[in-house]
Amino acid sequence: MSGMNGTGVLNGTDEREAARHQVRELEEQERRLVLDRFGNEDAWRLGCLLTDLARERGAAVTVDIRRGGQQLFHCALPGTSADNDAWIERKCRVVERYAESSYLVGARFRAKGRTFEESSRLDPDRYAAHGGAFPVRLRGTGVIGTVAVSGLPQGDDHALVVDALGRYIEQRTED
Predict the structure, then answer these.
(1) Would you identify the family this protein belongs to, as annotated (predicted)?
(2) What is the C-alpha to C-alpha distance for residues 80 and 98, in angstroms, rounded to an integer?
(3) What's the pLDDT tens digit per position in 37-91?
């Protein structure tokens, strides 16, 4: 039987191996999804693209984009609630602390056979290593902000952000 054993340790080497594989995939996404610049207009365009993708998919999500301490874009689609805003806050804190996507941070803990909630020593009411918040990383600079989604299962939140960032970078390359 797999799952938690009550001590914050995951049972089963298969789960840890799957998490290690996931870590490699998520690291590759972060290497690939790097921007050359990111201003207010970029946040607006990326936010609109992300919102349009969510609408096309019928996804009830909240979208949030920040640079430093400033919120540059926020949209709550029908079917969302203030709980989605709270999830975004918690996931973005993970990105700000670790400079990696919230999903990658959670996967790193799972790869070690642990859970973020019990092993990070961070308040789970303030930090959530669940998929959906991704670093805005500038080439030659590093992480300067976050783009986040909440409303879907964590893997789907993460995939929506990655899809939008990939499309946005591709569009900018074509301009």
Answers:
(1) Belongs to the UPF0303 family.
(2) 27
(3) 999 999 999 999 999 999 999 999 999 999 999 999 999 999 999 999 999 999 9
Cβ atoms of 91 and 65 within 8 Å: the answer is no
Say if CB 127 and CB 94 are below 8 A apart.
yes
Of 40, 16, 36, 26, give the one whose Cα is nearest residue 132.
26
CA distance 152 to 79: 11
DSSP state string for 106-138? HHHHHHTTB-HHHHS-S-TTT----TTEEEEEE
Reference 97, options 73, 129, 72; nearest CA is: 129
Question: pTM above 0.85?
Answer: yes
